[in-house]
Amino acid sequence: MVTSSGAQPSQVSTLNGVGAVLMKGVAALVVSCGPAVLAVTPLLPDRHWIVLLAGTLTTAVSVPGGIALWLLAGRNRAGTRRLEAVGVRATAEVLTATLTASDEGHTYEVAMRVSGLGFEPFEVTQSRTGGAGLSAGTRLQALVDPFDRSYTILN
After folding, report:
1. For the whole model, what pTM was predicted?
2. What is the pLDDT of residues 24-54, one digit of tens each?
3. Coil, strand, or helix at residue 137?
4. Three-class secondary structure assignment of 2-36
5. Per-residue pLDDT tens for 85-131?
6. In a 3-state reduction of DSSP, which class is residue 83?
7. Pick from 21, 134, 123, 9: which is nearest to 70 by CA?
8. Is there a contact between 109 and 67 (Cβ–Cβ < 8 Å)?
């Protein structure tokens, strides 16, 4: 059994290969928006200064935003691969589920105890949407890296 070395549990946002490709595709589209507007500017006969200004502002926002989205996709996919490689199956038992919002979908603040073979149990709190069937005692599947206590709830 791996004992905790004071490391705080951290949730891993899982991303499969298809999700990573889609996310990076969106990132590429976001990055290209501003430069595309700038490329069209010389083709316009009148008021090209407005398009130039819009293209410059769009480029200033979309390029860093698209790069950040691309990097996030890569980081999430790498975290998912690492957790799939070294993670152990675990159980996340719901301790409490408190309704925090009910506008479009119910959002719950859920406290869980995560336990399994190879690591000391720990407690986490996270927001979850839906919540049908979430009550004290409900057991969910989880995947945990016993060395750094990173985890993901599978259902």
Report:
1. 0.70
2. 999 999 999 989 988 888 887 777 788 888 8
3. coil
4. ECCCCCCCEECCCCCHHHHHHHHHHHHHHHHHHHH
5. 999 999 999 999 888 877 777 788 899 999 999 899 999 998 888 76
6. helix
7. 21
8. no
